[in-house]
Specification:
CATH architecture of the largest domain: 3-Layer(bba) Sandwich
Bound molecules: flavin-adenine dinucleotide
Strand content: 25-35%
Structural class: alpha/beta
Strand order of the largest sheet: 5-6-4-14-15-16-13-17
Number of strands: 19
Number of helices: 9
CATH superfamily of the largest domain: FAD/NAD(P)-binding domain
CATH topology of the largest domain: FAD/NAD(P)-binding domain
Radius of gyration: 20 Å
Distance between the termini: 42 Å
Number of domains: 2
C-alpha cells in the first residue's frame, strides 16, 4: 500500500513525488495522460526569475533556480530577465526591488540607457529597468523527467493513462478510485494544475483554480541565434525571448474567458503585436511561424498565486501557480514533503499561500504577474 498518492505528473507532481520518495515514503503517481508534462508544463515558455514582489514568490523561485542550476536535465540558461518599468509602476517596482535585494537575490536597477545595451526599445513612458542575472530559461520537460526518474529510482510507482476519479476519507486513509483500480493511502496530494478546480469538485472541496488559455507565438528562424534576455514591457505585459534562432513572444489576454478553449487564438496576435511593435520597433520585419506557435493553460487562482499545503486531513494541494509554476516546482516539492513528514513545511513559511486566505477573503498582492 502506498503512503502517498500524488495526482498529476507535471513538473509540480513530479517534484513532490521525488521529494516524498526521498523522505522514505512509498509513493504512487497517477497521471491521466500517456506520459509526463502533457499539461501546462509542456506548454510553458520555460522562464525562471526571482523578480517578484511577494517574498515567498521570490524565495520559491530562488531556491528552485539553484536546484535547476545543478540539474543537467533542466538545461538552465541564465539569459537574464529584463523588466522595463513604466512611470505608473515606478513606486511598486522600486518596492519590489527593495524586497528582492533585502532577500539577497541578484537583481539590479538599470537606467534606460543601460537597459538599451541589452535590447533596443522605445523609451516612451518608461522610468527605469531592472535586470536579474540569475533569471533565465530551463527545459521543463527535462526537469520533470529528472524528478520522475529519481522518484522511481527511490521506489515510486508512476501509472500513466490512469485518471483520478474520486476519493473518500475512511479509517485514516484516502480511498482513491480510477477507471483501472482502487488504491488507498494516508496522504493524497493534488498536483493537477489547471484541472484542480474540477478535481476538487469530485472531492467536495472548493479549490478555486480555473484554466485560462495563453499563447506563445514564434517567429521564423532569424538566421542567427539572438542573445537578448527575456524582456518584458511591464506597461503592457508583452514579452519576448530567444529560442535557438527564433524569438518567442506573448502577452496575457486579461479578457480570456475561463475554460479549456482549444487552439492558438490568432485574434489575440493583433493586440499582442501592437504592444510589442510599439515598444520594440525592430521586431517589425520578422516573419511569424504559425506552426511553431502554441497555446496552453495558465492555472489561475483568484490572486494569481498558488495554493500550497494541507486543505483537509491528509489532503494536500500544490496547484494554481497561475503561470509561474515551472520556476517554483523544485522548492515546492521539498516543502510538500516537509508538510507530510513534519506536519508543516519548515524551510519556508508557506502561510501566505495556504487555501485559508481565499476562505477568509484575503488575497496576496503580487505585482510581478505577467
Ligand atoms: C503558454 C504558457 C507559458 C508559460 N510560461 C511559463 C514560464 O515562462 N515560467 C513558468 O514558471 N511557468 C510558465 N507557465 C506556467 C507553468 O507551465 C505552470 O505553472 C506549471 O507547468 C504548472 O505545473 P503543474 O505540474 O502544476 O501543472 P501541469 O503541468 O498542468 O500538470 C498537471 C497534471 O495533472 C494531470 N491531471 C489533471 N487531472 C488529472 C486527473 N483527474 N487524474 C490524473 N491526472 C490528472 C494533467 O494531465 C497534468 O499532467 C506557462 C504556462 C503556459 C500555458
Amino acid at each position: 500500500m502506498p503512503e502517498a498518492i500524488v495526482v498529476g505528473a507535471g513538473i509540480v507532481g513530479a517534484a513532490c513525488a521525488y521529494r516524498l520518495a526521498e523522505a522514505g515514503l512509498r509513493v504512487l503517481v497517477l497521471e491521466k495522460e500517456a506520459t509526463f508534462a502533457q499539461g501546462s508544463t509542456g506548454k510553458s515558455a520555460g522562464g525562471v526569475r526571482v523578480q517578484f514582489s511577494e517574498p515567498l514568490n521570490v524565495l520559491l523561485s530562488y531556491h528552485s533556480i539553484r536546484e535547476y542550476r545543478e540539474m543537467a536535465e533542466a538545461r538552465y540558461r541564465p539569459i537574464g530577465y529584463l523588466f522595463l518599468v513604466p512611470e505608473a509602476l515606478k513606486e511598486a517596482q522600486e518596492e519590489a526591488l527593495k524586497t528582492q535585494q533585502a532577500l539577497g537575490v541578484p537583481v539590479r536597477r538599470l537606467s534606460l540607457a543601460e537597459a538599451r545595451g541589452f535590447v533596443p526599445f522605445r523609451e516612451d513612458g518608461l522610468a527605469f529597468a531592472t535586470f536579474g542575472p540569475m533569471d533565465g530559461v530551463i527545459d521543463p520537460h527535462g526537469a520533470t523527467g529528472f524528478f520522475l526518474r529519481e522518484a522511481r529510482r527511490l521506489g515510486a510507482e508512476v501509472r500513466f493513462g490512469e485518471a483520478f476519479l474520486s476519493a473518500r476519507r475512511e479509517g485514516g486513509v484516502w480511498r482513491v478510485e480510477t477507471p483501472l483500480g482502487r488504491y488507498e493511502a494516508p496522504y493524497l496530494l493534488l498536483c493537477t494544475g489547471a484541472w484542480t478546480g474540477e478535481v476538487g469538485r469530485r472531492l467536495g472541496v472548493d479549490l478555486p483554480v480555473h484554466p485560462a488559455r495563453r499563447m506563445v507565438y514564434a517567429t521564423a528562424p532569424l538566421g542567427h541565434a539572438p542573445t537578448y534576455p527575456l524582456t518584458i514591457d511591464l506597461a503592457t505585459g508583452f514579452y519576448f525571448r530567444p529560442e535557438g534562432e527564433r524569438l518567442l513572444f506573448g502577452r496575457s489576454n486579461p479578457d480570456e474567458p475561463p475554460g479549456f478553449r482549444e487552439g492558438v487564438d490568432w485574434a489575440w496576435l493583433g493586440p499582442t503585436l501592437e504592444a510589442g511593435l510599439f515598444r520594440f520597433p525592430f521586431l517589425e520585419g520578422l516573419a511569424l511561424d504559425r506552426k511553431a506557435s502554441w497555446f496552453g493553460y495558465y492555472e489561475m487562482t483568484p490572486d494569481a498565486n498558488p495554493i500550497l499545503g494541507y486543505v483537509e486531513e491528509g489532503l494536500l494541494v500544490a496547484a494554481g501557480f497561475s503561470g509561474h509554476g515551472v520556476q517554483q516546482a523544485g522548492m515546492v516539492g521539498r516543502l510538500m514533503a516537509e508538510e507530510v513528514v513534519y506536519g508543516k513545511a519548515r524551510t519556508l513559511d508557506i502561510g501566505p499561500f495556504r487555501l485559508e486566505r481565499f476562505r477568509e477573503g484575503r488575497f496576496v498582492k503580487e505585482r510581478g504577474i505577467v
